[in-house]
Write a sequence for this structure.
């Protein structure tokens, strides 16, 4: 019966080897520049120095960047709900009609919704749309009919007409008033604070005049960052999304397969592999390091699979220069011997069944 057992065992071995190769595998040899899978929905690309010369990142275009830099803040213009403090020197009855003992706000002049304010002797004055200097000159001119050589000063106690809105993963989200001191994006973010544990730092968006601008927060850390020259204006909205919906998935023959939160635009393939503990040297196929990137609409766009040959340690220089995107899947395939060992581990139960059957026939 031994020859019968050997024949049966060999038959199972051949059949299972042909049909049931355990685990996921993609042959690195199929990768050629611009090659496609049979259905045409997936493009296969090798990660090479020539590829990395192209722009694989999602940084802001030059024209959009220049649009933001072109805006230069002008002198502050008064608006409705601003609270003004108007001083007429040597005339405390005009400066502080409620008395000097009152809080300074009690003697403020509120700009009404129609843009006007009331001032003694001269009545209603159009304030909205004027600069502080314009309003000071207008009040002094009209007071000259009642006061000899009036010396007038105007300052703002509270800014209520212009604002920037910050939303999302800021420590202090909400409205930030636009004041007489111009405010940059960097200053606004610094004032609000960022919750770095939950924020998607790669997704900061500035909405202005019906347009949306993606901002790379990583640039803030550079001393010569152009973001220090981008000023905010009334109506701007800054939104910093949360990172709970943006992940990078590291799977296959790595020490710790896991889903990584995508926080910055500078997250690269080397970061992902390193965070996952590195490649399993004893089980991984170093040629089979892949980045699988889906398409927004698979019916009209091609998904992409990038392949890195990491048989040489120098390949990790390429990995460090390859930027990842949210929802990318990093997959490290198994070596041939690993697949064989797993195949054998699945085969043994079947071999045991054959052995029992052979023993029974005896």
């Amino acid at each position: 019966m031994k020859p019968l057992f050997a024949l049966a065992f060999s038959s199972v071995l051949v059949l299972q080897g042909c049909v049931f190769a355990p685990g996921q595998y993609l042959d690195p040899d199929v990768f050629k520049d611009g090659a496609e899978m049979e259905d045409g929905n997936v493009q296969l690309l090798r990660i090479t120095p020539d590829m990395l010369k192209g722009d694989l990142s999602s940084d802001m275009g030059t024209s959009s960047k220049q649009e933001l830099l072109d805006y230069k803040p002008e002198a502050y213009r008064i608006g409705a709900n601003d609270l003004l403090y108007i001083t007429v020197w040597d005339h405390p009855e005009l400066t502080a009609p409620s008395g000097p003992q009152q809080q300074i706000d009690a003697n403020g002049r509120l700009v009404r919704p129609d843009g006007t304010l009331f001032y003694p002797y001269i009545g209603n004055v159009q304030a909205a749309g004027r600069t502080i200097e314009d309003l000071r000159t207008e009040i002094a001119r009209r007071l000259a009919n009642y006061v000899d050589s009036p010396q007038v000063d105007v300052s703002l106690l509270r800014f209520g007409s212009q604002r920037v809105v910050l939303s999302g993963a800021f420590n202090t989200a909400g409205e930030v008033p636009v004041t007489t001191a111009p405010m940059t994006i960097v200053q606004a973010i610094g004032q609000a604070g960022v919750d770095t544990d939950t924020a998607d730092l790669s997704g900061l968006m500035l909405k202005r005049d019906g347009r949306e601008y993606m901002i790379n927060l990583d640039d803030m850390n550079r001393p010569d960052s152009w973001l220090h020259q981008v000023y905010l204006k009334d109506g701007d909205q800054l939104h910093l999304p949360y990172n709970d919906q943006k992940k990078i998935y590291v799977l296959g023959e790595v020490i710790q397969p896991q889903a990584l939160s995508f926080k910055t635009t500078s997250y690269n393939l080397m970061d992902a592999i390193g965070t996952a503990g590195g490649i399993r040297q004893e089980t991984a196929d170093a040629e089979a390091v892949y980045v699988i990137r889906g398409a927004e609409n698979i019916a009209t766009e091609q998904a992409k699979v990038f392949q890195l040959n990491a048989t040489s340690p120098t390949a990790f220089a390429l990995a460090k220069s390859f930027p990842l995107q949210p929802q990318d899947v990093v997959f490290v395939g198994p070596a041939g011997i690993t697949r064989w060992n797993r195949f054998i581990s699945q085969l043994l139960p079947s071999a045991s069944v054959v052995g029992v059957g052979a023993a029974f026939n005896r």
Remarks:
- Residues 4-20 have pLDDT under 50 and may be disordered.
